[in-house]
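Milestone M4 deliverable, item 7.
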Amino acid sequence: MRRTLQGMVASVMRAFPGMSIPPGEIKQVLETANKDIHASHSWPWTYKDWNLAIPPPQTTGTITIYDGTYVVQGLWTTFPTLQPGYRLRFGDASIDYQVQAIFNATSLALTQPINRGADYVDVPYTLYKDTFEFPVDFEIGQDVILTNPLMRSRLKHIPRYTFEKQMMVLRPLQSNFPLYYTDNSFNPTSGCHSIRICPPLSTRAEYRLTYRAKPPDLDLPTSVTALPEGFDEVLELMAEARLKMIYQHPGAEAAAVLATGKLRSLKRIVGNATVEIQPTASGVPDSSYSQWGLSILPWSNP
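Output delivered:
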């Protein structure tokens, strides 16, 4: 049974008989140790899966927008509301426009006015979503694995500048098989980072995103760590060693040695985890850590 934060604080307190250490200080040291362990290794249990649902592009009806303005009015349109990350391409425009807000099924606003030198009245259009938010627990700065389960292929990550250069060529292209993705923006309202994929899809699709999650916060008495059952003791030993150093208490070195040994033991267990090799539909082996829920697909250019 995993220990709660309250239980770990009580356990660390028992290592200091006759001393009164503030529980808040012990909690802070435990939180630091938890983050240190998380950052020390690519632990399989820190990875999660997320299905990236890509809606089909909208082409129903026609739109009207006047030169020098940014508000688009639709006729018989069905714009999706309350969804960020859309772009609009219309008429003979050679570029697409980022959508700032969708007000209702027939009205939306671009992030900036168009500068085409002409009005567009009742013209065809394509409204598509190419930017998607990560889950809120996504750990920024970590690599992600984005795969096409249907094709058993892995999408290629490229830098933002390279992505924009590719889009100069791929913007007019509609494809069922995205080739690239890149880091995008941060939404301060939702607290989520996002990615952008290209080329735009011509149909509905769903992709699998595997990402590294942040360690759970130890902020409540009932909070638990993400460590496997039985390894919470590592946190307690690390906290004990740190506090004994701060308070110049004997036994700090012994506690540190025990914590290091426990951590090495955990890494050995992970390193010796059984790896299953299974053929995919295309006959290419697919390796996976089944007991940790981490799937690593072989590299393939879509």
